[in-house]
């Protein structure tokens, strides 16, 4: 991914540090650690903080495709991992606060008797309670061509590396939940066909609207909450102790995907786009209707049957998705309803 533009002192300090060689300047690393500590003391809600979310996004990106020109040895630099943990702690707490504010099941079964069907029922109940503003209905019936492009830009921050954050969970699982996750991910990665990888299909959709399809091409354009939605996945996926949360995240993602994607496809067809553009959404209408059962019962449910103590984390992962993505939807819809762009920066030429 290209180096993004800094959004404040923390991201500026991080990007400056990453431009050098690991261990070449211990003082600079210590100074950044101190800066992060100081900035966090004065911070509000880290979920919508532009500076902190960009810094976290860049730190996580070292574990994915990396940043252009940044030495790969930074990925496991102990001092840099310490800085990431400084940012992760308040981020996780903010996510837990947001999740607690969501509608939660009226009661949970006793951990010692909970079944995979119980877990799936809880997750389906949560999915049915999702009452956030409907971007999908707006896209289906009213979105302008410019708004369709903005919608894709927001989604591109994750969809161009779709499935990768959840894949971190595979080696953390065993038995039934592991097999379930591999089954889901095999579909996400195209079943061995590169052109059918969901990330590749989404890239074709972007090209169909004249957008840049390189991963991270629009990081500078999206607001903090868009980054937070993706950072949440990385936090859950990269921390083994949160394996329940990443399972709950994927389950609710699949359970709330099929109908919205049907509406998205309708919106793009309304503007005259054909299968090359709508194929990504059409694929998810069918695939996610199957995936939601596998993710709810076999992945999340199977995990809780094997490790009952993870039930609360599964619920946390699911409710955090509803909370954070609901805030993103609210931001987008508020902008569109007031005839404004939902992006924070001008989109590069080519839109």
Please supply descriptive tags for the structure shown above.
Heme Oxygenase, Chain A; 15 helices; 351 residues; 2 domains; globular; mainly alpha
Provide an overview of this structure.
The chain has two domains: 9-100, no CATH class; 116-337, Heme oxygenase-like (Heme Oxygenase, Chain A). The longest helix is centred in the C-terminal third of the chain and has 32 residues, at 275-306. The model has no long low-confidence stretch (mean pLDDT 94). The protein has helices spanning 9-18, 26-41, 50-61, 78-100, 116-129, 135-141, 145-159, 164-167, 175-188, 198-208, 224-238, 243-255, 258-270, 275-306, 311-337. The two termini are 20 Å apart. It contains 15 helices and no strands. Helix 7 runs antiparallel to helix 10. The chain has 351 residues and is mainly alpha-helical.
Write a compact overview of the structure shown.
With 351 residues, the chain is mainly alpha-helical. The protein has helices at 9-18, 26-41, 50-61, 78-100, 116-129, 135-141, 145-159, 164-167, 175-188, 198-208, 224-238, 243-255, 258-270, 275-306, 311-337.
Rg, please? 20 Å
> What is the CATH topology assignment of the largest domain?
Heme Oxygenase, Chain A
Number of strand elements: 0
So what's the overall shape?
Answer: globular
Give the CA-CA distance, first to last residue. 20 Å
Topology as H/E string? Answer: HHHHHHHHHHHHHHH
Q: List unreliable stretches of 5+ residues.
A: none
The pLDDT mean sits at 94
């Amino acid at each position: 991914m290209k180096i993004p533009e800094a959004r404040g002192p923390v991201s500026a300090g991080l990007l400056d540090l990453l431009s050098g060689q690991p261990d070449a300047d211990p003082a600079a690393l210590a100074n950044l650690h101190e800066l992060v500590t100081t900035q966090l003391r004065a911070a509000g809600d880290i979920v919508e903080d532009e500076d902190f979310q960009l810094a976290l996004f860049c730190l996580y990106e070292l574990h994915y495709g990396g940043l252009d020109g940044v030495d790969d040895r930074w990925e496991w630099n102990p001092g840099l991992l310490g800085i990431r943990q400084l940012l992760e702690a308040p981020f996780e707490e903010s996510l837990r606060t947001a999740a607690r504010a969501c509608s939660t099941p009226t009661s949970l079964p006793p951990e010692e008797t909970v079944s995979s069907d119980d877990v799936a029922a809880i997750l389906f109940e949560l999915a049915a309670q999702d009452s956030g503003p409907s971007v999908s209905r707006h896209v289906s019936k009213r979105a302008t061509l410019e708004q369709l492009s903005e919608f894709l830009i927001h989604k591109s921050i994750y969809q161009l590396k779709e499935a990768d954050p959840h894949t971190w969970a595979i080696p953390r699982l065993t038995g039934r939940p592991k097999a379930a996750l591999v089954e889901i991910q095999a579909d996400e990665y195209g079943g061995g066909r590169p052109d059918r990888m969901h990330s590749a299909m989404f890239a074709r959709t972007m090209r169909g609207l004249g957008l840049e399809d390189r991963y991270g091409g629009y990081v500078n354009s999206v607001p903090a909450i868009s980054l937070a939605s993706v950072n949440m996945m990385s936090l859950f996926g990269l921390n083994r102790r949160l394996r329940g949360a990443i399972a709950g995240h994927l389950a609710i993602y699949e359970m709330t995907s099929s109908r919205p994607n049907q509406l998205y496809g309708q919106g793009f067809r309304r503007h005259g786009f054909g299968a090359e553009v709508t194929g990504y959404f059409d694929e998810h209408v069918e695939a996610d209707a199957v995936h939601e059962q596998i993710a709810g019962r076999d992945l999340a449910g199977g995990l809780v049957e094997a490790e009952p103590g993870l039930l609360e984390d599964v619920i946390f992962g699911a409710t955090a998705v509803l909370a954070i993505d609901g805030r993103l939807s609210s931001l987008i819809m508020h902008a569109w309803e007031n005839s404004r762009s939902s992006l924070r920066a001008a989109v590069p030429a080519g839109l």
